[in-house]
Design brief:
The protein is 75% helix and 3% strand. By secondary structure, it is mainly α. It folds into two domains: 19-111, no CATH class; 117-302 and 311-337, MetI-like (MetI-like fold, Orthogonal Bundle), CATH 1.10.3720. The strands form two sheets. It has a two-stranded antiparallel ribbon. A two-stranded antiparallel ribbon has the order 3-4. Helix 6 packs parallel to helix 9 (193-232). The model has no long low-confidence stretch (mean pLDDT 85).
Length: 338
């Protein structure tokens, strides 16, 4: 098992390095004059040159990536040009490791911007993940066990309806009717644990989490039902039944365990995707998460922030794949031999 873990971690590190190079190349090796967007339309040639030197855009792509990678490990100082740091030491901004860049548009390091928005996206992702996994798997197993019945058809039909509605529509309906018109909940506003305690924190996440969870839960109901029904048709399940094992044991120890493998894969990737920020849901409820930060960075052409968010999201996806691989080894020990 240890050798398997080491192999997966080593592969993950290589993927992170390659991913950072590709991401950096897509944004900073393009023919677009990055300094012009930061400096503004009325910048002179001298000001553009100074801006490019301050941000390190006048250097080669290889050196820019090397400085970025070094900043992730050791931290970095801005302006990037040593001459500018000598002539104006009061303007030096230190970005501690892991440094993902400096946003001139926001006047702060990308790391600090992400630190401010990460708790919101993380809280929303975790709460929605728990809701859709518990609800989706339980309802999917129920539909599979009641295959062909009214319960099965009802659950599948409801999941199709829920899956058909986009998240922004569900969010607006919950916001307008549940919170505003009927007053069943307070107007959604993100509250940290430090501000409102655990109760206030959970209450502020209720409607956004339900909005996200409904979409994913609908997909997981159908997916779990399909995989469980498929598992029931396997030879080892028929063998277990022929041995006289209780139906509960056959279902949860044999059929469901085999059905969990593809579900774990999808769950890990879906959760990692949400960690980059649920852009639509955060926009509907005006939550200051990474999704909203990504929208602002894109509209303002704030490349350092955009690159930092893309690299962070890709890191989550790679880590999710590693965790999924390790869970595979727990669910099915044969995977360790691969």
């Amino acid at each position: 098992m240890l050798a398997y873990v080491i192999r997966r971690l080593f592969a993950g590190v290589i993927m992170l390095i390659v991913m950072s190079i590709v991401t950096f190349a897509l944004f900073f090796a393009s023919p677009i004059d990055q300094a012009s967007f930061i400096c503004g339309k009325n910048c002179s040639a001298a000001q553009k040159k100074q801006t490019a030197a301050a941000m390190g855009y006048d250097d080669s792509f290889a050196n820019q990536w090397a400085d970025f990678a070094k900043g992730v490990v050791q931290g970095r100082d801005y302006p990037d040009d040593p001459k500018l740091r000598e002539t104006a030491p009061e303007t030096i901004v230190h970005c501690e490791a892991p440094c993902l860049g400096y946003s001139r548009e926001r006047g702060d390091t990308v790391t600090n911007l992400i630190k401010d928005t990460f708790p919101v996206s993380f809280s929303l992702a975790v709460s929605a993940f728990i809701l859709w996994m518990v609800g989706g798997v339980l309802l999917g197993v129920t539909a599979a066990l009641k295959k062909g019945s009214i319960i099965d058809r009802g659950l599948v039909g409801l999941s199709l309806i829920a899956y058909a509605f986009p998240t922004f529509f569900v969010g607006l309906v919950l916001y307008k009717f549940v919170a505003i018109k009927w007053g069943l909940t307070e107007i959604p506003r993100y509250t940290s644990i430090a501000e409102g305690g655990v109760g206030g924190w959970l209450s502020s996440l209720t409607l956004p989490a339900i909005t996200l969870a409904l979409f994913f839960m609908a997909a997981y109901v159908r997916m779990t039902r399909s995989y469980v029904i498929e598992s029931f048709q396997e030879d080892y399940v028929r063998t277990a039944r022929s041995k006289g094992l209780p139906e509960r044991t056959v279902t949860y120890k044999h059929a469901l365990r085999a059905a969990l493998t593809p579900i774990v894969t999808m769950a890990g990737l879906d959760f990692a995707g949400l960690m980059g920020g649920a852009i639509i849901t955060e926009s509907v409820f005006n939550y200051p998460g990474m999704g909203k930060l990504a929208v602002r960075a894109s509209s303002d052409f704030d490349l350092p922030t955009t690159v930092g968010l893309v690299i962070l999201l890709a890191t989550f996806v790679i880590l999710a794949n590693i965790i999924v691989d390790l869970l595979y080894a727990v669910i099915d020990p044969r995977v360790r031999l691969g």
